[in-house]
Write a structure and sequence with these properties.
The complex is a heterodimer of chains A (about 230) and B (about 180). With about 230 residues, chain A is an alpha+beta fold. In chain A, about 35% of the residues lie in helices and about 15% in strands. In chain A, strands 2, 3, 4 and 5 form a four-stranded antiparallel sheet that branches. Chain A has a two-stranded antiparallel sheet with strand order 1-6. In chain A, helix 2 runs antiparallel to helix 5. The two termini of chain A are about 30 Å apart. With about 180 residues, chain B is mostly helical. In chain B, about 65% of the residues lie in helices and about 5% in strands. Chain B has a two-stranded antiparallel ribbon with strand order 1-2. Chain B is globular and about 50 Å long. The chains are: A alpha+beta (about 230), B mainly alpha (about 180).
Chain lengths: ~230, ~180
């Protein structure tokens, strides 16, 4: 059956009326290959630059927010560590904390390696106005009425509860929507001063997109390079 | 594979090898292309496109059977790609398809070719590779990048489809369905 079908097909398919000049085909193939190589080189350059840019672009969270740890919200040269340590010593002195934050701004205070995701703001108790929360002394209030922000565990470790609220911050509208708990000691907490930050720069998201696009481009080029295997 | 001796060195002349391959195998490739596309224009485009895409890899795949298998794979992929894009599916013609019952081998061949062109692209590729290019199931599977089982099932479906044509079923060409 197979040989019959093959013979019939062989007979049925006519002789080609066209002839491909091997030299011309080779010439065209070379030109196309050269053009493809140039394009591939350009794409590779763009892809490498894209990946490089996505890597070396400064991280807003690290660089912009925490570049000046000594600057308080209103220019006070008081660090969070000072405030916390003062509270640890049992000082009865009220801690002057900002009571308002301009619209469009948010308070950022992120201990440890906790990094609030873009668009969110991490706030611990120390950023609360005293008159807005009974546990406004911020540390050492173990059995407070609303111990939702920070308390000590009594063993020298700190149980830090970070609650994130959406910006702009308002003492009257503090509805935490995310809570992270972890325990650490004071020395390991990277106390970072609150500072005013505006919304995330546009390249925070663009950076990720550039990286993904560049990776896709590289994958596509690799596929083209290795051909029909 | 064209091997050139230069002094004490031996190198493969890929360009000459490619030229010789095109000269020697274009007839077979064009006929396969004709079966895949249905027109000589399409066949010429298909073979040229496959050759152009194969050239950058020629020093690796080389000529001979490996080179031909590579070019055929590119042709099949290209034909399937064109088929998906559907930009060359419709061909204007002045002749209506032949529908009369075949009375001679020539008529049967015409009916067979028409029936093959109406197969789905992948089944058509399997039939062309298996029964026109006389490749084994394993070689066909390698070109189509599928399993031998898939080749068998596609072949079976294609044959069933061809047998549904009364003119072809009346012949013993496709084997008995009963």
């Amino acid at each position: 059956m197979s040989s019959d079908l093959q013979a019939l097909l062989d007979e049925a398919v006519p002789e080609p009326p066209v002839y491909l000049d091997p030299a011309q085909v080779l010439s065209r193939a070379r030109r196309r290959s050269a053009a493809n190589n140039s394009l591939a080189g350009l794409l590779a350059l763009v892809a490498v630059l894209g990946v490089g840019a996505s890597i070396v672009m400064p991280n807003n969270s690290d660089e912009a927010r925490y570049a000046n740890p000594a600057a308080g919200v209103h220019g006070e040269a008081v660090t969070r560590r000072d405030l916390v340590e003062e509270s640890m010593r049992g000082s009865d002195q009220p801690i002057a904390l900002p009571t308002e934050v301009p619209a469009g701004y948010s308070l950022v205070f992120a201990p440890g390696n906790f990094m609030p995701p873009p668009g969110r703001t991490a706030i611990d108790v120390c950023t609360l106005p005293l008159d807005a929360d009974p546990v406004g002394t911020c540390v050492g209030t173990r059995d407070a009425e609303r111990p939702r922000f920070s308390t000590t565990t009594g063993d020298g470790k700190w149980q830090v509860i970070v609650q994130a609220v959406s910006a702009p911050y308002s003492p009257d509208d503090l509805e935490p929507w995310e809570e992270l708990r972890y325990t650490t000691d004071l020395a390991s907490i990277r106390w970072l001063d609150e500072r005013l930050t505006k919304e995330e720069p546009w390249w925070q998201d663009i950076r990720l997109m550039i990286g993904i696009a560049a990776a896709l481009m590289l994958a596509l080029m690799a596929r083209r390079h290795f051909g029909e295997r | 594979m064209v091997v050139v001796r230069e002094g004490g060195c031996v190198r493969v002349d890929a360009a000459e090898d490619f030229r010789q391959f095109v000269a020697a195998r274009q007839r077979a490739l064009l006929r396969t292309g004709w079966l895949l596309t249905g027109t000589w224009h399409g066949a010429e485009d298909l073979v040229q496109a496959a050759l152009l895409r194969s050239w950058p890899h020629w020093s690796r795949v080389g000529g001979g059977a490996d080179g031909e298998a590579y070019v055929r794979r590119v042709m099949i992929n290209q034909a399937l790609s064109w088929r998906r894009r559907r930009w060359n599916n419709e061909v204007p013609t002045e002749e209506m398809p032949e529908r009369a019952s075949p009375t001679s081998d020539g008529d049967v061949a015409l009916v067979l070719l028409t029936a093959i062109r109406q197969l789905p692209a992948r089944q058509r590729a399997v039939v062309v590779l298996r029964y026109f290019d006389d490749l084994t199931e394993a070689q066909t599977a390698a070109i189509l990048r599928c399993s031998v089982g898939t080749v068998k099932s596609q072949t079976s479906k294609a044959m069933t489809s061809l047998r549904s044509n009364p003119a072809l079923d009346a012949t013993d060409l496709l084997g008995s369905t009963r």
